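Subject: two folds for Thursday's group meeting

Dear M.,

Sorry for the delay on this. The cluster queue was jammed most of the week, so I only got both jobs back this morning. I'm pasting them in the order they finished. Each block is the input sequence followed by the predicted structure tokens. Could you check whether the formatting survives your parser before we put anything on slides? The first protein is the one we discussed after the seminar.
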Amino acid sequence: MFRTAYWKNDTESGSGSVGGRQRSARIGVVLGAGAARGWAHIGALQELNALGVKPDVIVGSSIGSLVGGCYAAGKLDMLEAFARSLTRRRVFGLIDFSFAGGGMIGGERLRVRLETELGDIRIEDLDIRFAGVATEIGTGHEIWLRRGLLSEAIRASYALPGVFEPVRVDGRWLFDGAVVNPVPVSVARALGAEKVIALNISSERLGRGTAIQDPFGGGEPPAALTQRGNDASSVIARWWRGSPRLPADPDAAPPGMMTVMVNAFDILQDRITRSRLAGDPPDALLQIKTGKVGMFEFHRAAELIDIGRDAVRRAAGELADHIDFSRVEAPNG
């Protein structure tokens, strides 16, 4: 059995008590999308466990589904060992290029590896409630994968459009859940989580985007764009005033296809995440800042796992505002 962390305000959340003893609120942990940066979730979950926070519900989108699914299946140590073993050469060796299907990578080698490790584990047989989020091609439906083979659900959830081939599940063609719900707090609540901790992977490659109303019209920029301390605004203001460093050299080659795809997906995911979290905020949001680590730098697992651990350590005080760590039960058995 898993240890359970009690929340201070159980009575306010409707958790109530049993036989005069206040029972624990069901804790949900949500693991956001982020491609390679999602290795940080491994360290974050390990540190949450060290604090006594072990979820009753775990939900993931994209790589968050991979990490969350392995955690729910008791395979997190296996995943960590695999992630740490990756080098640039080994990552390349797992890629099977396919230009005939719906993505550049067929995903067969990864499928075999997943099925070897997870076998015939089914989601409904897990001790922890789990769901992976995917997107249906054609309809745009947000699909919650709560039953069936765990390995299949994970593959569908991380099938990045244009990169991995989509996965067929129960007659539906599915790809990356980050397209519709990068940090699926709503799913955790639907699965019964009364208190939700969400882990959002963020990169320093993106600033807070804004609208440039007339970038070629000259004149002074709006006052909002001249504020110091807002990195994105400062950059735009310098560009507007004719900084020699911005825009880029007009004779430079345009960005390559992968650069465009990755940047577009980064921006899309960032905007959707902000919107979804504003509409359904978690009880505690941990922003895991991964610096300038790229989406496909899977060989940097050791660094990212440490980043995840450190993020939870630094947020422990904030978590303690919601969780009474002094009332953590010891493991049964």
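Second protein, same layout:
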Amino acid sequence: MQLGMIGLGRMGMNMVRRLLKGGHKVVAYNRTPDKTREIVREGAKGAYSLEELVNALKRPRVVWLMLPAGKATDEHIENLRPLLSRGDILVEGGNSFYKDDLRHARELRPLGIHYMDAGVSGGIWGLKIGYCLMIGGERKIFRYLEPIFKTLAPNDGYLYCGKTGAGHFVKMTHNGIEYGMMSAYGEGFELLQASPYGKNLDLSRVAHLWNQGSVVRSWLLELAEEALKKDRNLSSIKGYVEDSGEGRWTVQQAVDMAVPVPVISASLFQRFRSRQSDSFSDKILAGLRQQFGGHAVIKAGKKKY
């Protein structure tokens, strides 16, 4: 099939490469032209404006967005609206909030433009392994696009999740689960490191061991093994953890639906905590412990007293 790809970042660029290897024809556009020129050398057709991309596609046009959620995605969809025609298909593959999908589909429907939301997981490994795709929108459009999904995904790696927003809702929940799993691994390895046996434990080998048939084996644990193998104590990086939005949306949605998600909630707050040094809340805790129990505290810039 032929499609246009807008956004050639860590995910979009490798998705184009996988599609080209699968025999699809891709027209590629990126805000900065260097990446466009790079993928042109690998067989894609380059476009250096949205108008050029749309004009290079045959109808019904398929345009796939791989952009940061929020303002960047909204602006590109707004700019594409007057360029696309009735029957064209817009696939939003970023990590957008599902309610934004409902808004976009509602705005495009009067123009006859089909809107599909696609949650994409796989990171920088997707080129080799394939991307896990969670897709929402019209079933008939899903069927039409299926050759693209088959190329991007490994075996059994894509799923029609339901009407508009379903794909991104499933992806949002997927990322919330990911938060919790990562936090559990982090806490466990910290416990091992702090233990009386920590100095003699090779944590990368522990991670490798646990991936050999144990109930906690996973790809995340394989990645932990690789990270610990390169840097035994991870001393080259700081424990500062960003969140890209999906964890927050998961917790907010759980509150709205009165669904308990204590592990995911705690893992989100842990990420917030990672960005603080000597946080005020910890000062309150230390002060309270001193007041009610006479426990030792550490003065700013000094040792315990």
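Two things I noticed about the second structure. The chain has a mean pLDDT of 92. The beta strands are 2-6, 25-29, 45-46, 62-65, 89-92, 114-121, 132-136, 158-162.

Cheers,
T.
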